[in-house]
Amino acid sequence: MDEAASQPILAIDLGGTQIRAAYVSPDLALACRRAGRTDDREGLEAVVERICSIAGRVRDDAREAGLPDPVGVGISSPGPLDPWRGVVTAPPNLAGWVDVPLVERVGDYIGLPTYLERDTNVAIMAEWRHGAAQGADDAIYVTVSTGIGGGIVVDGRPLIGKDGTAGEIGHMVVELDGPLCGDGCQGHVEAIASGTAIAREGRALLAAGNAPHLATLAGPTGEVDAALVGEAADAGDEACQSVLAHAWTAIGAMCASLVNVLNPEVIVLGGSIALNRPELQGRVRDEINRRAFPTPARRVRVEMAQHAADVSLIGLLPIVNARLHDPAFAKEHP
Ligand SMILES: [Zn+2]
């Protein structure tokens, strides 16, 4: 895998709200950045055309800047998706997207080998090859933001699964009779500890009149998100503190189970909520010590992510370089 970071690529990060693209050099420098709104309400075709045109502009900018030609294109996208076929299956935050052959569309437009991977798997590649999990043979990336996602490296290889769905750790059951998850299942950690879940609990506290600081912060609109629940907790709302404490315990319990099952060297915490609530790191550590076997609990390090928002662009560098030489992905070449 040493050659995996040897050639520059064109990286595209398709998010629920924003499309970002950049030229990524082997030294991890990002150049020729471009961005645009995803705006999935305009329909699938408009979004795909926007992705192609943003990527095309990055390619043209890089050419004008005299940079070496990129060897391929990487696309980070919300899951579920099929990296083998290069198809975005049906992401819940991209309305109307069902079995979209994104690799074929972007590959045809740019004229370079193109590869697709789930955003959380891209993130762990960034942290594993170039960040907080560098050098580890066994690592887990946990992202806590709107949802809870993850990526897993076992024996020095990313765990992708037969259908590309491995690593969906946010849908581990941590409370048998817990709240319903967005997928309709009960007790998933995402339904307890994601930004969406924390905001839902905050709105319930507001409605019950149990969170005076939250009520002041929310103002007349009454709009509540996870960050506001955090602010209210910091200001002294005990009920908001309890919501967060319960969420962090759930994430810690999930990590303890992962430690028992996978015996990782490092767990990396990323995503906007994890990065904004540094107490999560200590709480995860405590729950691992409390709930996991002593030997793997002593082994595992709990680290914060190093690449923040660029994780989805940087992680595509090793992915594209490795897949260019992987016969399993040869069929995706345009
Ligand atoms: Zn779920």
Number of beta strands: 12
**β content, as a range?**
15-25%
Distance between the termini: 24 Å
For the largest beta-sheet, the strand count, sense and barrel status come to: 5 strands, mixed
CATH fold name of the largest domain: Nucleotidyltransferase, domain 5
User: How much helicity do the residues have?
Assistant: 40-55%
Number of domains: 2
Which architecture name of the largest domain does CATH use?
Answer: 2-Layer Sandwich
Classified in CATH, the superfamily of the largest domain is ATPase, nucleotide binding domain
Pairing-aware structural class of the strands and helices? Answer: alpha/beta
What would the principal axes of the Cα set say about the shape? globular
Number of continuous helical runs: 13
Name of the CATH first level of the largest domain: Alpha Beta
**Which molecules are bound besides the chains?**
zinc ion
Low-confidence stretches: 1-5
The value of Rg in angstroms is 20 Å
Task: Give the neighbour order of strands across the main sheet.
Answer: 3-2-1-4-7
Helix-strand string = EEEHEEEHEHEEEHHHHHEHHHEHH
Mean pLDDT: 93
